[in-house]
Each structure stands twice: as structure tokens, then as C-alpha cells.
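Lab notebook, design round three. We kept the backbone fixed and only want residue identities now. Task for the bench partner: fill in a sequence for the structure below.
Input C-alpha cells:
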């Protein structure tokens, strides 16, 4: 699906305010309310807009530890890769998992209430997985920059 300037304006606006009214989005995109509504629906149906959510401050709800965990599998047999992905899928503390190039096979982003819980997660849930070969963790000391906005101006 090709995106035109109005689509980009809609997406940019929604990235900054997912709760914006259709009228507000239409004004930003220089469209009528009905045209805007149709475009938003089309973007949703094409899975360009995948959903809407609230951003929650982890520390304010008691999740003080944010960490990145690099996981290297012991071997790369297809069944072990699938087994790893299946094993981590239900673990709620893992917010993100990326298959990556470089020294690690996967990078996980996890949130925990404290160091004791993080240690328990590492020692009793992640490292004992039979397909895991090596694990390195990095605890975030300070969030310097965080953005979920995509750089749509470059399109």
C-alpha cells in the first residue's frame, strides 16, 4: 500500500496523540472528517495502524528494574530456535524480544520490580532453558531517550 502525504500526516498525528478525535486528525491532514475516517480505517485494515494503547510509567507501578538481556543459544537447530521462542512467549516480564545479528541471537527487554526478582528470573526461568547457551544482562541506570515514534518524515 502506498502512503501519500495525507496518510503520513494522519500517522504522525496519531503517533503523538492516539486519542485524537477524527475531526482533529482531519484538520491536521487537511481532509474532510469523512475522508479522514475512511483513510484511518484503510490504514487499520492494512495493519499499518496495528492498534492503540496507553503508555504506562513502569516505575510508577512498581517495576523499577528495566534490563536488556542478550541470549545466545547453545545450538541453532531449527527445533531449538522454535523451542526458545515458544518458551519465552508466555513470560509476561519480557516486553520485547528481537532476533539479532552479532554476538547474541536474541535481545530481550524485561521489566521487574526489583533486583531480587530479576535475579530469580535469570537464575530460575531463563538460564535453565535447555536451548540457552549464554546470557548477558544489562540493567538500565537511566532512560536517556525513548520514543515509539517512527521517522515518517523520511517517507
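Proposed sequence:
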Amino acid at each position: 500500500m502506498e502512503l501519500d502525504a495525507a496518510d503520513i500526516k494522519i500517522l504522525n498525528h496519531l503517533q503523538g496523540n492516539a486519542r485524537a478525535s477524527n475531526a482533529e486528525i482531519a484538520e491536521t491532514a487537511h481532509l474532510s472528517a469523512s475522508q479522514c475516517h475512511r483513510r484511518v480505517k484503510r490504514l487499520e485494515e492494512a495493519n499499518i495502524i496495528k492498534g492503540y494503547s496507553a503508555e504506562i510509567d513502569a516505575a510508577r507501578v512498581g517495576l523499577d528494574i528495566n534490563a536488556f538481556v542478550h541470549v545466545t543459544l547453545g545450538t541453532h537447530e531449527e527445533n531449538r530456535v522454535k523451542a526458545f521462542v515458544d518458551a519465552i512467549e508466555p513470560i509476561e516480564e519480557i516486553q520485547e524480544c528481537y532476533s539479532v545479528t552479532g554476538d547474541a541471537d536474541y535481545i530481550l527487554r524485561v521489566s521487574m520490580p526489583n533486583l531480587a526478582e530479576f535475579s530469580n528470573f535469570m537464575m530460575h526461568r531463563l538460564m535453565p532453558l535447555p536451548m540457552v547457551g549464554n546470557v548477558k544482562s544489562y540493567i538500565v541506570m537511566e532512560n536517556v531517550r525513548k520514543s515509539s515514534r517512527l521517522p515518517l518524515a523520511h517517507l
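Keep this in mind before ordering anything: The chain is about 35% helix and 20% strand.
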